[in-house]
Design goal:
This protein is mostly helical. It has a domain of about 140 residues: Tetracycline Repressor, domain 2 (Orthogonal Bundle). Helices cover about 70% and strands about 0% of the residues. The protein has ten helices and no strands. Helix 4 packs parallel to helix 7 and helix 5 packs antiparallel against helix 7. The chain is elongated and about 55 Å long. The N and C termini lie far apart (about 70 Å).
Length: about 210
């Protein structure tokens, strides 16, 4: 008797509305994690996203899965912003400025405590995105230095730490309210990076690896 090998069926592609719901959940979760921390109730995230609780759990079986998706999406967008800035052929310092403001909008620093609790220290996706972003930011800064626009004593860690600190809204402060002053403060910081330097920086710039090992 001839046996018939069953044809493998491809998994159905998610519908457009299902993808939109997932994106809304991730966006709402990022906003609420930034505003209220990692313990915000998932039903509150569902309410802000405009979906039902079942939709949240259908996409993300637990809180850690949602946190991982939020962090990875933020890292991916930060890398994309750096790639776009590096690809620009215009003014090198203006490209750096655009990247800084775009990176600040992601509020990655507010998510850092959740990274430590939900990711393995050497998670491959996280490591790859982190290394790529550091390389790109270094290249953006090197181009601005070569153009004589960025002071030569500033390192990648100086930039990234300052952006992280300046873009993190106070606890309980909504992202929309923080937007009123975050970009203002960032621009003040960026103006201080322009060459020629008007002061001597104390100490030396740490590498990003130094910061991770601290």
């Amino acid at each position: 008797m001839q046996t018939v090998t069953p044809v493998a069926r491809k998994a159905p592609r998610p519908r457009a509305d299902a993808l939109r719901n997932r994106e809304r959940i991730v966006t709402a979760a990022r906003e609420m994690f930034v505003e209220f921390g990692p313990d915000v109730p998932l039903d509150e995230i569902a309410r802000r996203a405009g979906v039902g609780n079942a939709t949240v759990y259908r996409n993300f079986p637990d809180r850690d899965a949602l946190v991982r998706e939020v962090v990875c999406s933020v890292m991916d967008r930060t890398v994309a912003a750096a790639e776009l800035a590096l690809a620009e052929s215009g003014d090198a310092f203006e490209a750096l400025e655009r990247f800084v403001h775009a990176a600040a909008d992601e509020r990655l620093s507010a998510l850092c405590p959740m990274v430590q609790s939900t990711f393995d220290k050497h998670h491959p996706d996280l490591e790859a995105a982190r290394e790529r972003s550091e390389q790109l930011v270094g290249a953006i800064m090197d181009r601005a230095k070569a153009a004589g626009q960025l002071r030569s004593d500033v390192g990648v860690s100086d930039l990234m730490v300052a952006v992280a600190q300046l873009s993190r809204p106070p606890a309980g402060t909504g992202c929309s309210i923080a937007d009123r002053f975050v970009h203002r403060h960032l621009q003040l910081f960026l103006d201080g990076l322009r060459a020629p330097a008007r002061s001597v920086l104390p100490g030396t710039a740490l590498t990003m690896e130094d910061l991770r090992q601290a």
